Structure formats: C-alpha cells, structure tokens
Amino acid sequence: MPSSAPKVIAHRGARLLAVENTLEALRIGFAEGADGVEFDVQLTRDGELVLFHDDDLQALTGARGTIASWNFRDLRQLTVTDKQGRTGKIPHFDQVQELLAEHDGVANLEIKVVDGNGQRLADAVLRQLGQSPERPWLISSFDRAALAGMTAAGPDLPRALLIDNDPRCDWWSAADIGPDGTTALSTLAADVGGHLQAIHPHGLLLTPERVRHWHRSGLAVNVWTLNEPAHWSLAVAIGADGIVTDDPGGLATWLDAEGA
C-alpha cells in the first residue's frame, strides 16, 4: 500500500443510493465519506447550466430531446427516475454551488459536450465559476475544444484530461506511451493553457508504466469508475491519487480497513 490513501471521489454523487447528478446524490456522497464529488454539466437552450449526464433525456425522464433543446423552466418540471425507481429533479448549477459551499473537498466538474457546443458551454462555466473562485474546482472533459476554449478567459482553473479506453478519444495520446517512454503531454498541456493538473483515465488504462509517467509529468491520476475491492486494491497498489466510484461509502470503509 502507498503511504498516502487515494481521494474518494463520488461519481455523479452517490449514484448507488440516489439518482445520479441530483442534489441528494451529492449530499449523500459527502455524507458517505467522499473527499470530493464529480458531476456532469450541460447547457440548456436558454443558456442555463444544469447537471445531467446522458446525451438525451429519454432514459431518465421519458421526454424527448437533449438538455440543449429545452429551456430550464420546462426541464425543472421533469422527474428523473433511475433503474431502481428512485426519483429526483434536474438541479440548476446555482443550487449545486449552494450545496458545495457547505462542504470541503474538490468539486470535479465535467464539461459534458453533447451537441458540439463545447465553446459556449465552456464560456458559461467560466462565467458561473467566477462567483466562487475560492473553491478547489477541477474542470475535466473528453472534449478538446471545450477545455482549450477556457484558456483565454480562465487561465487559473485547474483542468484534467478525461481519457476513455478508445483510441478515438481526444486525449488518447496522453495514454499512448512511445518507445522512448514519452507521450504528447507537453502538447496537450499547451492546448489547455498550461494549467493541466490531472489525468482521469478509464480503469482499463491504468498501468504502472502510465501512472509513473503521469506522475513524473507532475499530474495527479484519478481513475474512473471503480466499484469493486479488487479494482480499488489495484489502483492503490499502482499509486492512483484518486478513485472515482459509484460507492464512496464502500470505498472509504475499505480504505480504512486496509490502513491506506
């Protein structure tokens, strides 16, 4: 075991106990012992920031269309229902900021680009975060344009590259270590304004070689989404700095039991 335990990051809140990306899920995540929370932000048709993950509304609300095709005053009337039959409401980002003000810990905001509106979404996030600069934000995205688009207006906001286990991912070159043991991290850091703080790799990308390289580059490694003790053990052994999980309470309890 490493001498320092990885941070417990609640994935979309505690989504095993409440509807993902709701205020209740975020509250429970902290109550379960999370060191921080991760959530997805999208932009409505009338320019409001809300929490929602999916590309469309159908699976969770039964409604048609995307977040970007609805005004917030109508979205707030929808009921979000998960596979376990639990219900909730789509929260406005203002509500989330009020909740976060009551808790310490990192807030990992994922810019969720659905309709190619990455620049507009990034601009809206920057305007909103200007209201709470003291919080330790960490802005992540799979979308290169969204993170790069924040460079001019938000040079001081820490950023993280979200990497899927798919070579078509925008940031794949950060995981593709060449024969000389290097990646394209310096170029990627320049793309996001030089304020790259972390790498968020899919669990299948976690290898000792990659973690060593990312650490040598000065980056934290927060792996997603691990929900089983066997996977937590591997992440700790390899040296992950944070574990994004649907089960923050289970992970926090496991870390305590392991003495991590």
Can you tell me about this structure?
This protein has 260 residues and is an alpha/beta fold. It has one domain: Phosphatidylinositol (PI) phosphodiesterase (TIM Barrel). The chain has 10 helices and 11 strands. It has helices at 23-31, 58-61, 72-75, 93-100, 118-129, 144-148, 185-191, 208-216, 229-238, 248-258; strands spanning 7-11, 36-43, 49-51, 80-81, 87-88, 106-111, 137-141, 159-163, 196-201, 220-223, 242-245. The longest helix has 12 residues, at 118-129.
How would you describe this structure in keywords?
globular; alpha/beta; 260 residues; eight-stranded parallel barrel; TIM Barrel; two-stranded antiparallel ribbon; 30% helix
> What CATH first level would be assigned?
Alpha Beta
The total domain count is 1
Helical residue percent band: 25-40%
What form results from the Cα inertia axes?
globular
Radius of gyration: 18 Å
* Poorly predicted ranges: none
Question: Span from first to last CA?
Answer: 6 Å
Structural class: alpha/beta
Name the beta content range.
15-25%
Strands side by side in the biggest sheet:
1-2-6-7-8-9-10-11
Mean of residue pLDDT values: 92
**Topology as H/E string?**
EHEEHHEEHEHEHEHEHEHEH
Please tally the helical runs, counting DSSP H or I stretches of 4 or more residues.
Answer: 10
User: How would you name the CATH homologous superfamily?
Assistant: Phosphatidylinositol (PI) phosphodiesterase
CATH architecture: Alpha-Beta Barrel
Q: Would you tell me which CATH topology applies?
A: TIM Barrel
Count of DSSP strands: 11
Query: What does the largest sheet look like?
Result: 8 strands, parallel, barrel
